[in-house]
Amino acid sequence: MRKLSFKLGLLFFVFVLGIETVLFASLYVTLVNARINEEFEQLLARGNNHRDVLEKSYHLSTLEHVVMMESEAETDVVITDANGNILYFSDRILPFAKKLIPHADVRHISHSGMVVQNNWKKQPYIATASPIRMEGKTKGYVYMFQRTASIQNMISKLKHHFLVVGVVSVFLTIMTIFFLSRVITIPLIRMKQATEKLSKGDFSVRLQVKGEDELAQLGKAIQTLAADLEYLKKERNEFLASISHELRTPLTYVKGYADIARRPNIAEEERANYLSIIYEEAERMQKLVKDLFELAKMDRHSFQIEKEPTPLCLFLKKIYEKMAPAFQAKQMVLIYRCEENVTVYIDRQRFEQVMTNLLDNALKYSHECSTVSMHVKREKKNVIIMISDEGIGIPEADLPHIFERFHRVDKSRSRIGGGTGLGLAIVKEIVEAHGGSISATSQFGKGTTMLITLPRG
C-alpha cells in the first residue's frame, strides 16, 4: 500500500506540477508583456504631452523648459527639426540619440506618435517619437528615451516573486498530495489488513466506514463479507457439532446393544429386543445420511428440479388420500379444501416430499382427536397452500429458527419422535428452488400454520 500511496502521490504531483507550470508560465508571460506595454505607453504619453506644449508655444524658452524638466527625471528627451537635426537634448542621451534618430523611420508617423526602439533586452534605451505639427506641417519631433535597466530590474523582481511563489506552491502541492494520498490509501490499507485477517480465518473484522463513495461501498462490502463468513463459520461449526452428536448417539446405542446381544447367556426374546433397537437406530442413521446428502446436493447447486405443469388440487388430493389413514389411526381428522383449476409448475416428486414432511410434522406434534387442514387459496399471481394443525405449537423464541438445520423446538422429544432437525431445512430449500417461499405462524399450545407461496402457472 505504501507503493500505491507513492504512485498515486507521484502521479498527482506530475499532473499538478504540469498544470501549475503551464498556468505560471502563461501568467508570467502575460504579466511581463502587460508591464512592458505599460512602460511604452507611459513613455509615449510623456512625449505626447511635451509635443502638445510645444505645439501651443514653440519658442526657445519652451524648448529649454521641456529639456530642463527631463533633466531631473528618469527619462530623457531629444527635440529635432523636421529633417531630423537635433535642436535640444538631455546631455546623457546624445550619443545614443545620434545613432538612433538617423535610422528612425518617422515619415508616416501619426499624430499620436510611435515607438521607435522597443528592444529592451539588448539595447540600453527604449524610445518613442511624437511629431510636432503646426498649421498642417511637421515642425519637428519629440524623442523620449528611457533606460531599459529599469525594465530589466522590474522583470528581475517579477521573476524572483514568481520563483518564490512557485517554490511555495510546489511545497504546498507536495504536502497536499501527501495528505490526500494518505487519506485515500489509509482506508485501502485497513481493507487490506482486514482481508488478510479474513484469509487467516479471523472474521472479527470491524471497519469504520463513512460516506457513500466507492471506497465506503468497498469497505461496507468487506464488512458484510466478514459478517457472512463469521456466520458461515458459526453455522459450519454448529452443523458439524450437530452431525457429530446425531451420529454419536445412535452409534453408541448400536455398539452397546450389539455387545449385549452377542452375549451367549441372554434369552432369545431379550436378544430380539436388542436387535430391534439396533435396527431402529440404523434406520435413524440412514435417514440422517439421506437428508445430509440431499442438503449437500442443494449446497452444490446440483439439486435438480424438473418442473412440469401440475393440477394442484388433483396432486394434493392424492397426497391427502395417502396420508389420511395415518391420521385416522391417531383418531385425528385431516381436512382437504382446494379451489378448482389451479395449475402450478412443480417437480412432483420433490413437492410431494415437502407436503409429506409438513403433514407428518402436523401428525406427530398434534393431539389425538384434533384436526389438521390442508387449504389452497388462489391469488392474482400466486397460489398459497396452508397446512394448519391444533397441536402443541411453537414457542415464539424458536419460531424464527425452525427452518435452520438441526434446529429442534423440543430437544428432549426429538429422539423419541425420530426427527433429524433437517426436515424443515430441506422443505425450505425445495420450495425456494421452485421460486416460492415458506413461512410459519404459531401460538404455543394452540397450533401452527405453515404457508407455502408458489407462483401460478
Protein model, in words:
The protein has about 450 residues and is of the alpha+beta class. It has 3 domains: about 1-155, Beta-Lactamase (2-Layer Sandwich), CATH 3.30.450.20; about 215-300, Orthogonal Bundle (Helix Hairpins), CATH 1.10.287.130; about 310-455, Histidine kinase-like ATPase, C-terminal domain (Heat Shock Protein 90, 2-Layer Sandwich). It contains 10 helices and 12 strands. It has helices spanning about 1-55, 60-70, 95-100, 150-200, 215-260, 270-300, 310-330, 350-365, 410-415, 425-435; strands spanning about 75-80, 85-90, 115, 125-135, 135-145, 310, 335, 345, 370-380, 380-390, 435-445, 445-455. It has a 5-stranded antiparallel β-sheet with strand order 2-1-5-4-3, with helices on both faces. It has a 5-stranded mixed β-sheet with strand order 7-9-10-12-11, covered by helices on one side. Strands 6-8 form a two-stranded antiparallel ribbon. A hairpin with a 4-residue loop joins strand 1 and strand 2. The protein is rod-shaped.
List the helices and strands and how they pair.
Layout: H1 2-56, H2 60-71, E1 75-81, E2 86-89, H3 94-100, E3 114-117, E4 125-134, E5 137-147, H4 148-199, H5 214-261, H6 268-299, E6 308-311, H7 312-329, E7 333-337, E8 343-346, H8 348-364, E9 371-378, E10 382-388, H9 411-417, H10 423-433, E11 437-443, E12 447-455
Protein name: histidine kinase
Enzyme class: transferase
Membrane topology: Multi-pass membrane protein
